[in-house]
């Protein structure tokens, strides 16, 4: 196969490209330029896609003896990921930009361009596995599964991929742990073998999400209100800077409250109010989610699943079903209440290690009398 290897400049994508070459594929390395003003040098382990990263990717490609190109996708990334991120927070939701990037950039824009240029597939350094099995009609079915390394598993952020995208995707690292990947990189002589992982939001290199949003939306003073009594308990500079489940950075006058900790239990974008309450108000066991994406056929009827609402969070037993009136809406009923589930987050559904699909959380509620976890 002719394969585009997405090379971020890190150790994972370097080994992924090498493994695709070892498997006999014709490999071309591609680095995605996602910012028109990328920093010259990485200042920490945060962020990615710097000029330094592009140089690291090129050096790996040269060592492998494969062609290497930089594809400019800054405009698409700005529109589909960064502007979406701002709009979601402004609407009182908590988005996951990594899912949006995988959906819109790496497995839409990148894959589409690769196919248009005559390539057969895209390979990335994500930690996940594609398992092939025989389908009922005799055709090979490709399923997305969790990685062997549970600590590095990235199947959650790949839950937006559909059948056609999975058919054109390779994840060569899914059967290996991160320490072994670093050992392999060192053995291959890659200079990135000890390079620190990037983490958090790549376009907010200092990790100050609230500050980054404020620089784009400006200060929007409003009230912090007790969710039960309706009493004003504080002020804020923008409801977009808060998310459900948040405890730190509330700026409340503790002397006017009892000793019990307070959390954000809701964000009302229409009134610019942040609702504050005790942790017992955070527990939910009902999720309604939209923008459903299925890694295979959509489930029929009510099915037992594992539900995960954070990239490296716990998986919770639940049942799920597609709305009978809208196939893009999914209902999830958790076996027990969980805390800190915010609209805008993604819920990814699993059947064992297999990813069933994902959807964006639109609302949450309580339906049972079980204790919160």
Short key terms for the protein model shown above:
alpha/beta, SH3 type barrels, Elongation Factor Tu (Ef-tu), domain 3, 6-stranded antiparallel beta barrel, 5-stranded parallel sheet, 7 helices, 17 strands
CATH homologous superfamily grouping of the largest domain:
HUPs
Largest sheet, described in full?
Answer: 6 strands, antiparallel, barrel
Low-confidence runs of at least 5 consecutive residues: 40-47
Structural class estimated from helices and strands: alpha/beta
GO molecular function: ATP binding; tRNA binding; tRNA-uridine 2-sulfurtransferase activity
Subcellular location: Cytoplasm
Keywords: ATP-binding, Cytoplasm, Disulfide bond, Nucleotide-binding, RNA-binding, Transferase, tRNA processing, tRNA-binding
Active site: 101, 202
């Amino acid at each position: 196969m002719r394969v585009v290897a997405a090379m971020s400049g890190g150790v994972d994508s370097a080994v992924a490209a090498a493994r695709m070459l070892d498997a006999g594929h014709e490999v071309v390395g591609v680095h995605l330029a996602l910012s028109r003003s990328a920093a010259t040098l990485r200042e920490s382990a945060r962020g990615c896609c710097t000029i330094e990263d592009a140089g690291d990717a090129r050096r790996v490609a040269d060592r492998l003896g494969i062609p290497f190109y930089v594809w400019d996708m800054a405009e698409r990334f700005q529109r589909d990921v960064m502007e979406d991120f701002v709009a979601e927070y402004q609407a009182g939701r908590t988005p996951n930009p990594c899912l949006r990037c995988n959906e819109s950039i790496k497995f839409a824009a990148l894959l589409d361009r690769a196919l248009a240029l005559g390539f057969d597939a895209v390979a990335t350094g994500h930690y996940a596995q594609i398992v092939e099995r025989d389908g009922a009609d005799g055709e090979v079915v490709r399923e997305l599964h969790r990685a062997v390394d549970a600590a590095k598993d990235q199947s959650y952020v790949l839950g937006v991929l559909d059948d056609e995208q999975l058919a054109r995707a390779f994840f060569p690292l899914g059967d290996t742990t991160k320490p072994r990947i670093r050992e392999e990189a060192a053995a291959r002589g890659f200079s990135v073998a000890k390079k620190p992982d990037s983490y958090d939001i790549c376009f907010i290199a200092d990790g100050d999400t609230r500050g980054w949003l404020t620089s784009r939306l400006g200060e929007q003073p409003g009230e912090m209100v007790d969710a039960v009594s309706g009493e004003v308990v504080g002020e804020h500079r923008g409801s977009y800077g808060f998310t459900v489940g948040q405890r730190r950075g509330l700026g409340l006058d503790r002397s006017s409250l009892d000793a019990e900790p307070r959390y954000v239990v809701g964000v009302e974008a229409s009134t610019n109010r942040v609702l504050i309450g005790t942790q017992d108000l955070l527990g939910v066991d009902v999720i309604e989610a939209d923008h459903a994406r299925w890694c295979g056929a959509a489930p029929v009827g009510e099915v037992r699943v594992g539900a995960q609402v954070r990239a490296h969070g716990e998986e919770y037993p639940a049942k799920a079903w597609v709305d009978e009136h809208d196939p893009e809406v999914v209902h999830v009923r958790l076996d027990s209440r969980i805390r800190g589930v915010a609209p805008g987050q993604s819920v990814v559904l699993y059947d064992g290690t297999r990813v069933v699909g994902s959807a964006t959380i639109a609302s949450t509620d309580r339906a049972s009398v079980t204790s919160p976890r």
